[in-house]
Design goal:
The chain is α/β, with parallel strands linked by helices. Helix content is about 15%, strand content about 20%. The two termini are about 30 Å apart.
Length: about 210
């Protein structure tokens, strides 16, 4: 391992002397936020980037391993949604003094859990809306507003975010989804770095095939 140190997903600060990049998992206090090993954010506080996550909605934010989240990214959860099937969208029930009980769950536009796969790169100031599912290896462009699901190994950008292209051909995407490098041990991932960072994609395909078959 580099400098005799083993990567530790329970360390908060992965860069010595630099506080504005943290591994997220060891900082989480909210049980409705679940983050995998080695996913990081370019900030000193992740939970401030998750808004409108209220217990009564029952939704969760689930993020996989090895995700890279830039500064200014916001995850907007279901609590941001107002009742839309009534005359007024004003949330009287959340404010003091108004005589209104919370709407029934079926009257709120709840979209379920927000799920981010493994090895996802989310660019600066992107906004992820409630209930979105982002596949493994996807890239979200800076300043994007993501309101729809994103396929694995796909690049999206814009407001609203639209697909720009797939990162790789279908064969390599299928191989990567079967290979699941992010689930391997730290020692094995360390030995895989030359493969994971190789730009000769035909070579990558052949090597993964050897390891799978």
């Amino acid at each position: 391992m580099k400098d005799g140190k083993t990567p530790n997903p329970n360390d908060i600060h992965p860069i010595k002397g630099y506080d504005n990049e943290i591994y997220i998992k060891p900082t989480i206090k909210n049980p409705n936020i679940i983050v995998g090993d080695f996913s990081y954010i370019a900030d000193s506080d992740f939970e401030s980037h998750v808004t409108h996550l209220y217990d009564w909605n029952g939704d969760k934010l689930i993020i996989g391993k090895f995700c890279q989240i830039a500064t200014g990214v916001e995850f907007v959860m279901n609590g941001a949604n107002h009742q839309m099937n009534s005359v007024s969208t004003f949330p009287f029930y959340t404010l003091e003094g108004w005589n209104m009980k919370p709407p029934a769950q079926e009257d709120l536009p709840l979209k379920g859990d927000t799920i981010v796969g493994n090895d996802v790169w989310i660019g600066q100031n992107a906004t992820i809306l409630p209930g979105v599912h982002i596949g493994h290896g996807a890239i979200i462009g800076a300043n994007s507003v993501v309101g729809n699901d994103v396929d694995s190994y796909t690049i999206v950008a814009g407001n609203p975010a639209k697909t720009l292209r797939k990162r790789f051909d279908d064969e390599l995407i299928e191989l990567l989804l079967r290979f699941k490098w992010w689930d391997k041990s730290i020692d094995e991932i360390d030995t895989l770095i030359p493969l994971l960072t190789c730009s000769k994609l035909d070579k990558v395909k052949e090597e993964i095939k050897k390891r799978l078959y």
